Amino acid sequence: VYIAGHTRSIDYPTTPNAYDKTQNGGTWDIFVSKLDINLSTLLASTYIGGIADEDYGAVALDSDGNVYIAGITTSSNYPTTPGAYDTTYNAAEDIFVSKLDGNLSLLLASTFIGGAQTDVGYSIAVDNTGSVYIAGGTQSSSYPTTESAYDRTHNDGSDGVVSKFDSNLSMLLASTFIGGSLSEDFYSLIIGSTSDVFLT
What confidence category does residue 57 fall into, taking pLDDT thresholds of 50, 70 and 90? Predict the structure, then answer.
């Protein structure tokens, strides 16, 4: 069982081979933890974060047992990896997407995605080809979209966004706004059996 969220605790339990055993700064860090099926043994557990705040924390697994997390960061030094889609913090709140091995000891890939204003990530899923989908919301008219996307224009307020990456988080394969004249955010995302994307 894998769980992810955010913690203010400097003594949140980590394991000896964790990617990051120390709370990084700010008020909140992301945690990711792995327990056995009886919830009796903590098999792996790590922090991940930067000098400011990270929030939320959604988790998904791929078919190889790698662990993907998404959420919100205000840290300019949130850890990214060489070759990632976006290694530079954009502004305000950015969405982060990170990939760890199943033992939570190695950061395999990690990227920002966002625009000039507030961007939030609330949900993540991996399809049967290994593509990674995130959903959330944005106030940024400059949030990245892709050619042939459903809607490439920010509508108003906060728009819902859904974005698709390759498994290495190095390529943005698809990305779109969805919204109306006020505010929208997507809190849940699942991938159907034919790779259709369902959002609420």
Answer: confident
Q: What is the mean pLDDT of the segment spanning 142-160?
A: 96
- Burial class, 108, CB count within 10 angstroms (exposed 0-12 / middle 13-18 / buried 19+): middle
Q: How far apart are CA 98 and CA 70, in angstroms?
A: 6
User: What confidence tens digit (pLDDT) does each residue in 114-131 have?
Assistant: 999 999 999 999 999 999
- Secondary structure of the chain as H, E, C letters: CEEEEEECCCCCCCCCCCCCCCCCCCCCEEEEEEECCCCCCEEEEEEECCCCCEEEEEEEECCCCCEEEEEEECCCCCCCCCCCCCCCCCCCCEEEEEEECCCCCCEEEEEEECCCCCEEEEEEEECCCCCEEEEEEECCCCCCCCCCCCCCCCCCCCEEEEEEECCCCCCEEEEEEECCCCCCCCCCEEECCCCCEEEC
Percent of all residues in the chain with a pLDDT value above 90, rounded to a whole number: 96
When the pLDDT of each residue in the chain is averaged and rounded to a whole number, the result is 97
Nearest to 124 by CA among 193, 28, 57: 57
